[in-house]
Amino acid sequence: MAAKLILSMDGAVIKEYPLNKERMTIGRKPHNDIAIDNLAVSGEHAAIVTILHDSFLEDLDSTNGLEVNGTPTKKHFLQNNDVIGIGKYKLKYINDQITQSSPADFEKTMVLKAPVKQAAPAAAPAAPAAPAAAKPAGAPPGFSQTQPNVAKAAVEKQVEITGKLEAMQPAAQAAAGPVAVVQVLTGANAGKELELVKNLTTLGKPGVQVAVLTRRPHGYFITHVEGASHPTVNGTPLSDQPHQLNDHDVIELAGVKMEFYFKG
Amino acid sequence: MRFKPAGVNMRIDEALEIVSQTHSGMVRSHNEDSVASEPAYGLVVLADGMGGYNAGEVASGMAVSVVMSEISQRLQKECPTDRDKETGEELAVLLLRENIQKANASIFNAAQSQPQYAGMGTTIVSGLFYDNRVAVGHIGDSRMYRLRGETLETITRDHSLLQEQIDAGIISVEDARISRNKNLVTRAVGIDAEVEAEVHVHDVLVGDIYLLCSDGLNDMVEDGDIQATLCAFQSNLPLAASQLIELANDNGGRDNVSVILVKAKGKFAMPRGWLAKLFNCFRK
Description:
The complex is a heterodimer. By secondary structure, chain A is mostly beta strands.
């Protein structure tokens, strides 16, 4: 299921174009794959390079430029529902194959049968100026489709999407809750507060006694990492396993007491 | 005149701490990754299989056991620093290349002869530690990272479409994370009759931590979080390994996730000179 562009002006759809070629051009002249006969559009205005499931938009030094979702751009990695603006015309990019093809052929590792030697672009990285013009490593044709079984596994599509979002913002989920704080109760630093804003916070002295506080989606955990004596939580020594912290737990580490709590 | 290196030289199995863990993840019912290590020879191997039903497990299992057993057997008699008479190449490099090729042939033949295994294949990443160095051989998108000081570096380069696009400047590293063309490898073990493993040798410093992982880790966990985890847990490798796997699973765990951690606790230079070698022979 190829991605497509929907051309419209003032909200009225004019035409749909499937992105079924490796490179498609947009411009005023009739030889373009997507020809828009309007004086605000340059003869060759832009190109879209598609590599398997990814499409890249590129400005071909047009007079009036390109916008994607209202922002002027020279080059853009297109995402589903992006709106490309050329003068008064809009081109909406639709790549919803995730909801259309069968789950079985998604999210699996496949082998590309491209000749590796020729494809290895060791000399290429110096040319970011006109990258899309370079043949993209001869990639698309050699896809090994004869082997539908070459799959790491098939995954529900929705899982794929949410998984990806979470992977990009692992901190966001935990950050949504109240901020957790460790306050030192005894010793020279008594009274000091440490907000646990990172996913990992190391407590103690390397070589003597170290514990790590980890922030996970379902809460905060303390883990003994090194040292002969283990830290205690509310007087009970920690095992070797991570221990989930509750509001107002008192941690004692290397003779220093501190309190863990959520800031309201 | 040769000076004795500073610090005490250790036997390889004393100098290295090796920990491995594998988990099927949060979504998949079975685990197609395989991991193995042989501390006596400083050898670690990780493979991430692909193929329907249980063919993925079969492929990764075969790759790991072929490489493991063949190399261990050769090293009973030979030394990884021996040089090939014709090419001048060190045995360590040769062993990795030849035996990954051997694993490739075994898997390819099994896939050809048994219909249920048709099309199976695997990635592989393997490290052979010797003489204060590590020879790294890999095919596909399983990786080896190195933590040196506070710096985490990838020391393998994926054989994947995305990596080729990154190299060619077609896509940025940031955009690659949201690409729909993930999981497309350009080289794999067992798919064709012949395959060339990429083998490089790197110097090892005391304190280095090497991480071998399947893409179930690096697809789910940002390099920055891998670095922070290794730094925080470096004095406790088993915890570091389980922490990495938990991170991948907390982030969705869409794939099997496997890690092998190798920490260089001391130097492991090969004995030099004929007397030392002779002595070493008798020790075995």
